[in-house]
Specification:
The structure is a single chain. By secondary structure, the protein is α+β, with helices and mostly antiparallel strands. Among the domains are: 241-405, TolB, C-terminal domain (Neuraminidase); 406-665, Rossmann fold (3-Layer(aba) Sandwich). It has 11 helices and 39 strands. The strands form 9 sheets. An 8-stranded mixed sheet has the order 32-33-35-34-36-37-38-39, with helices on both faces. Strands 23, 24, 25, 26 and 27 form a 5-stranded antiparallel sheet that branches.
C-alpha cells in the first residue's frame, strides 16, 4: 500500500503528447513535458521510441521549449518548433541518425509559429505564422523602457480583439506560410485581418487548403468559415463553397477527392451544445456536407477535463491510406475513445478500451498502426501502439511515481434527479477509508459547461481524497458526452436543470453512511465557479465554498469576456436595453442570501472570465459583512492557471483551497 497523493505530486507526473510514427513505421517521435519546480516553469523535449526494442531516448533537451515533432517524408529528419532563439520562434530540423538541430525557417520579425507540416514530396514545410506588431517586439519594449515611455495605445475595431492565454491580437492574425526545406526561405502566403486555420497539403504538394472566415463582420456573425486553397508557391486564393456552421480540423483525403472536417451545422449554436460532427465534403465544395456521426449522438473531440493535460491535443481527423476510413476521437460517458468510420458512412468502430481517455494519436497510413497516449483515472498518460487491434505500451515514465502512491479508483454513480432522469458521476473515497466512520464531502463542479469529467487521472481530486475528503464529481445536464438533449437542457438556463442535478447528487452523497452531512463543501472553476456562487446564493446547505475564476454577473460578463456573447441566441436579453434575463440568473443577484463562507480565486490575466467578475462578488459580500476572501493571482497567469500556470502558484492555490476546506469542514473522520 503506497502513500497518499500529496499536494506537490503534480510536479512528478510526466506528460507526453503529439506522437508521430516514422515513415518506415519503426519509431515514434513525441513530446515529453515535465514541470521544473526549481526554475518554476514547464520543460518540453522531443523523445524518440524504437518500437521493436521498446526503448525511448531523449532527442532534444536544452534550456528551451521544443514541440511538434514532424518526420520528413523520407524519414531522415525531424522538424520541430523551438524557442531556443528567443525572442524569435523558429522551425528547426535535426537529422534522425545524428547531428545538431539547426533553424530552418527565416521569419524576420518576432512572432509565433504553430501547425507545422511537411509537404508530401518533402520540399517544404507549411505552418501558421503570426508576426508580432512592431511596437510590441522585444526591441521596441526595451527602447521604451530606456526612454521611460509608456506602452503603446491599442485600437480595437472588432469584438474578438484578445484571447485568453494568448493576449491581445493587435491587428496581427494567423497567416498561412511556407518554408523551403532546402533554403529555409520563408514565405507568408496569406494576408488581411482574418485568422487562418491549420493548412493542409494537397496530395500532390501543389496546394494548401485551410479554413477561414474572411468576412469583415466575422466577429458579429459566426459559422461562415469557407475552405480556401492557395498555391504552395503563392498566388490567388480560391474559395471552396462550404456549408454554413462552425468548422475546424480540416483534413484532405490522400486520394485528393474529399475534405473531412469537424463541424457544427447550427449557426445559431455559438456555445456548441450540438455535438461536433464528422463532416465530409467533395473538394469541389457544396452547400451541404455528409454528416457521418450525427446519428450516433456522440461528440467528436477531446472533451474530458483533467489537470495533468490541456484540453484537446493533436490532430483529430486522420485518413487511411486508401481514403476509405476516417479516424477521430469521440467523447462519451466519461471516456474519450479513438474511433473509426467508413468515409462513405457506416457504423462507428471503437478502437481504444472503454474506461480510458486518449489524449492524442497518429495513424501510420501504410501499416494501419496507431501511436497514441492513453490514461485512466488511476494511470497517467503513457505512449502506446496499436497493431492489428492489440495495444502495447512503450513507455513507463510514471512507473516510479505510481509505485510510491496509492491512487483511489473512482466509483461510478447515477443517482436519480428530480426530473425522472439520472445524474452520472463518480465518488472518490478518502485514502485509508475505514467503514463505520463519517468523512467530510466535497462536491466538485466542472467548467465548460459543455465538457465532461471522466476517466482521466485528475491530480487535485486524488489529492483531496488523500487529505481525507469524500470527493463527488458529476456530469450534470449541460455536460457533453450523454447526447445532445442532455447538453441542450441548460440552453440559456444555467442554474436550472444543472442546479437540480447537482443538488440531487449532493442529496445522494450525504445519504451514504460514510459521509458526514454536517461537513460539506462545494467548489468549482469557470462555469463550476459560477455554479458554486449560485448554489451558495440559493441554499445554505454547504458549510463552505470555493469559486475559482467564476462568472458572477452575466450582464457585465457578456461584453468583457474574450468572446463577446451574441445576444438573444444562447442567453436571452442583451446588455443595453434588455438586461433582466442576463441579471436574473447571475450569482451576484443572490448575494444578499449568501451565508456560506466563500473563497474567491481569480487571475488578473484571465481574459475568459475577467477578474472583475470576482471583484464584483467580493465587493457585494464584503459590503454586507459576509465571510469572504479574495485570492488574486498576477497578470502573468490566465484562465487556465490551475492546469498550466507557474508551478509555485499552482501549489499556492492548492494549499489555500485545503486551508479553507480544513478550516470549515475539517478533513478527517
Amino acid at each position: 500500500m503506497g502513500r497518499g497523493v500529496t499536494v506537490d505530486d503534480f510536479l512528478r507526473i510526466q506528460m507526453i503528447s503529439d506522437p508521430r510514427i516514422s515513415p518506415d513505421g519503426s519509431r515514434i517521435a513525441f513530446v515529453k513535458r515535465n514541470l521544473d519546480a526549481e526554475k518554476n516553469k514547464s520543460r518540453s523535449e522531443i523523445w524518440v521510441t524504437d518500437i521493436a526494442a521498446g526503448v525511448s531516448r531523449q532527442f532534444t533537451g536544452v534550456e528551451s521549449a521544443d514541440s511538434s515533432p514532424r518526420w520528413s517524408p523520407d524519414g531522415k529528419q525531424i522538424a520541430f518548433l523551438s524557442d531556443r532563439l528567443k525572442p524569435k520562434a523558429q522551425i528547426f530540423v535535426i537529422p534522425v541518425d545524428g547531428g545538431e538541430a539547426r533553424p530552418i525557417s527565416k521569419f524576420e520579425s518576432d512572432g509565433a509559429i504553430q501547425a507545422i507540416s511537411w509537404s508530401p514530396d518533402g520540399s517544404a514545410i507549411a505552418c501558421l505564422y503570426r508576426a508580432t506588431p512592431a511596437e510590441y517586439t522585444k526591441t521596441a519594449a526595451e527602447e521604451r523602457k530606456t526612454k521611460e515611455l509608456p506602452s503603446p495605445v491599442r485600437v480595437h475595431n472588432a469584438l474578438n480583439y484578445r484571447m485568453d492565454g494568448f493576449g491581445y491580437i493587435d491587428g496581427a492574425f494567423w497567416q498561412v506560410a511556407v518554408v523551403n526545406a532546402d533554403t529555409g526561405e520563408s514565405t507568408i502566403l496569406t494576408s488581411g485581418d482574418y485568422h487562418c486555420d491549420a493548412p493542409q497539403w494537397s496530395p500532390d504538394s501543389k496546394l494548401l487548403a485551410f479554413l477561414s472566415d474572411r468576412n469583415d463582420d466575422s466577429d458579429l456573425v459566426h459559422g461562415r468559415e469557407f475552405i480556401w486553397t492557395i498555391p504552395a508557391t503563392g498566388g490567388e486564393l480560391t474559395p471552396i463553397e462550404t456549408p454554413a456552421g462552425n468548422k475546424g480540423i480540416l483534413s484532405w483525403s490522400p486520394d485528393g477527392n474529399l475534405f473531412a472536417f469537424a463541424g457544427n451545422p447550427d449557426v445559431g449554436d455559438p456555445w456548441g451544445t450540438n455535438n461536433t460532427r464528422l463532416m465530409v465534403l467533395p473538394v469541389t465544395g457544396g452547400v451541404t456536407a455528409q454528416d457521418l456521426t450525427g446519428y450516433t449522438d456522440r461528440s467528436l473531440g477531446y472533451l474530458t477535463l483533467s489537470d495533468v493535460h490541456d484540453v484537446g491535443a493533436g490532430d483529430e481527423i486522420q485518413w487511411s491510406a486508401d481514403s476509405s476510413t476516417i479516424y477521430f476521437p469521440v467523447s462519451a460517458f466519461g471516456d474519450t475513445l479513438l474511433c473509426s468510420m467508413e468515409a462513405s458512412g457506416g457504423g462507428l468502430t471503437q478502437i481504444t478500451p472503454t474506461g480510458t481517455e486518449i489524449g492524442g494519436y497518429h495513424l501510420d497510413p501504410a501499416t494501419g498502426s496507431i501511436a497514441l497516449y492513453l490514461s485512466s483515472p488511476i494511470e497517467p498518460p503513457e505512449l502506446g501502439i496499436i497493431r492489428s487491434g492489440d495495444l502495447k505500451f512503450l513507455t513507463d515514465f510514471n512507473q516510479k511515481w505510481l509505485g510510491e502512491v496509492s491512487l483511489g479508483a473512482p466509483e461510478a454513480i447515477a443517482p436519480p434527479n428530480s426530473d425522472g432522469g439520472t445524474v452520472p458521476g463518480w465518488i472518490l473515497k478518502p485514502a485509508g477509508f475505514e467503514p463505520g466512520k463519517r468523512y467530510p464531502l466535497v462536491l466538485y463542479i466542472h467548467g465548460g459547461p459543455h465538457a465532461q469529467y471522466g476517466n482521466s487521472l485528475f491530480h487535485e481530486l486524488q489529492w483531496l481524497a488523500a487529505e481525507g475528503f469524500v470527493v463527488l464529481y458529476t456530469n450534470p445536464r449541460g455536460s457533453k458526452g450523454y447526447g445532445e438533449s442532455h447538453t441542450k437542457a441548460i440552453w440559456g438556463d444555467w442554474g436550472g436543470p444543472d442546479y437540480r442535478d447537482l443538488m440531487a447528487a449532493a442529496d445522494y452523497a450525504v445519504g451514504l453512511d460514510y459521509v458526514d452531512p454536517s461537513r460539506t463543501a462545494v467548489m468549482g472553476g469557470s462555469y463550476g465557479g459560477y455554479m458554486t456562487a449560485l448554489i451558495v446564493g440559493r441554499t445554505g446547505r454547504f458549510q463552505c465554498a470555493i469559486a475559482d475564476r467564476l462568472v458572477s454577473n452575466r450582464h457585465s460578463m457578456s461584453g468583457t469576456t474574450d468572446f463577446a456573447w451574441q445576444h438573444d441566441l444562447y442567453f436571452k436579453g442583451n446588455s443595453w436595453d434588455n438586461p433582466e434575463p442576463l441579471w436574473n440568473c447571475s450569482p451576484l443577484s443572490y448575494a444578499a442570501n449568501v451565508t456560506t463562507p466563500l473563497l474567491l480565486i481569480h487571475s488578473d490575466g484571465d481574459l475568459r472570465c475577467p477578474v472583475g467578475q470576482a471583484e464584483e462578488m467580493f465587493a457585494a459580500l464584503r459590503l454586507q459583512r459576509k465571510v469572504v476572501e479574495f485570492v488574486r493571482y498576477p497578470a502573468e497567469t490566465s484562465h487556465g492557471m490551475s492546469r498550466n500556470g507557474p508551478p509555485n502558484l499552482r501549489l499556492d492555490r492548492l494549499n489555500r483551497n485545503l486551508q479553507w476546506l480544513t478550516k470549515y469542514i475539517g478533513s478527517r473522520p
